[in-house]
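User: Hey, my collaborator sent me this sequence without any context and asked if I could get a structure. I don't really work with proteins. Can you help?
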Amino acid sequence: MQLNMFKAKIHRATVSHAELHYEGSIAIDGNLLDAAGIREYEQIHAWDIDNGERFVTYALRAEEGSGIISVNGSAARSVQVGDLIIIAAFAQIDEKELAQFQPTCVYVDEKNRITHTNRSIPKQMAAA
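Assistant: No problem. I've predicted the 3D structure and written it out in structure-token form, which is a compact way to encode the shape of the chain:
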């Protein structure tokens, strides 16, 4: 059986550009793509933390170290420059591979520089 599993994310990236009249996609600093293991042209999901918008597009590689997170084409209507977004990718994983599988989580600062990475998401605890 193949399962559609969370593969990687870039967490709380800041939208640096929104280019309506550019070919679609999200241009992402190449350092972030490499750290997350997201490939250029790979399908990605984007979730805007500020307004709740969600959309699916594909990744384009932006210049390494540029901090660029440019939401392009029609998706540019879903964000504002300065919004925080989560960029996520998923993969088909064979059930036999699940025991060794771990996602890659990349965390960034307000300039989209990597602060740290993690191979799991912290367990959510009940509120006191």
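In plain terms: The CA atoms of residues 34 and 64 lie 9 Å apart. You can pass these tokens on to your collaborator as they are.
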